[in-house]
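Just curious. Invent one:
>
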Amino acid sequence: MAEPKVRNRNVCIVVLGDIGHSPRMEYHACSFLEHNYTVDLIGYVESKPLEQLTSALPRCKIHELSAVPVTNLTPTLKLIFKTVWQTLSLMIALASIRRPSSLLLQNPPGIPALAVCYLYCLITRTKFIIDWHNYTYTILALGMAGGEKNRFCRVARWIERKFGSKADANFCVTKAMMEDLTTNWKIRNVNVLYDRPPLQFHPIELTKKHELFMKLSKEYPQFLPSCYDDLKESGVVECTALTQKLSNGTVLYKPNRMAILVSSTSWTPDEDFGILLEALKVYEKEANTKPQNFPFLLCIITGKGPQKEEYQKKIEQLKFSRVEIITPWLDTEDYPTLLASADLGVCLHWSSSGLDLPMKVVDMFGCGLPVCAFDFKCLHELVRPGQNGFIFQSQQELADQLLFWFENFPSNPSLVESKEIFKKNLLSFQNLRWHDNWTNVALPIFNSFI
């Protein structure tokens, strides 16, 4: 696509959250850079952003927002103080950026960012664009008495509707959300920009899986072999609980290896990990009854967030013999490798609005990993049962899917056809990556504003 000859190829991206935990906005920034834009990225830096961004100075400048101080105020006053603090912090950050042709704001969180960014765009004659991942008011409702009827939620909804209608363009993550924004919110210029996996999420060879298992074994003994008799065999130079490496560099799976179940989360109220724990109890019981039919299952739950400690305590109380659960925080480069090394993924995201889609499933599909996903209103836009994964609505349904998938693992002849269908559809999904999709959908809109 020919690039227009223009002067102002600056764009500002605003995330009123941790940049490193906002992958979609990071991907926006990377795509802008690939199309010769300069980027000012505003947000909190609680975890390391992508290297493509941190190494792109001066073309990409990250403006770190000041963390909200901890206070002993009442919940209402604390919320007011946080709003005032973030308003001032965001205004200071916006005053320090290069004047952009467009400002792209992630929503949620939208308060106070929607009002502050709109006013900035109005004053500087910058195009105001919102990327709708969900709704702020439905997220707030999860933790407030009265839910969506709470006065703060009603105010948040009014703010989203008011300033959303003033945006020059909008992106959203599903067709269902686009229809809701246009029909019920009367918001114009809404474009569906589906999440697609970037190139780092891809299937990998067994050699790469072995390298990850070796690395993880230094911190997690579950990846260590139960004994080192392998090393006594001719030609075996390295071994893990799942793999062995020969002197000629060949890596093989061990017979009767354990299976890996993976789930990623931000440990927030819109994911009920109690469902997974209960399903694992069912699997544990069945695997103990028929140990010859069901493998030892290692469940890896990645991520960090507010409910992690609560669930870790629940996990510690479980007395499993055929299932083990670990909750690591992985390096950015190790996360895609883990997904590509797993045997099945689980997604417990249920969506506060019912209108967004879990990016973690997109990442899993990018790595060729089938998924069991909790069913909600628009999940069919991503997960197709029997074609690229499974959907469930209860702990028993999830347990049944785990038992179905892992029975006589890893060579259940009754799964050969299903696995081939999944593989074919996941390969097709991988043909369209984030940057190509962004170039087709988003770039023409941003180019039209400069």
Observations:
- Residues 75-95 form the longest helix (21 residues).
- The chain has a mean pLDDT of 91.
- The CA atoms of residues 182 and 188 lie 6 Å apart.
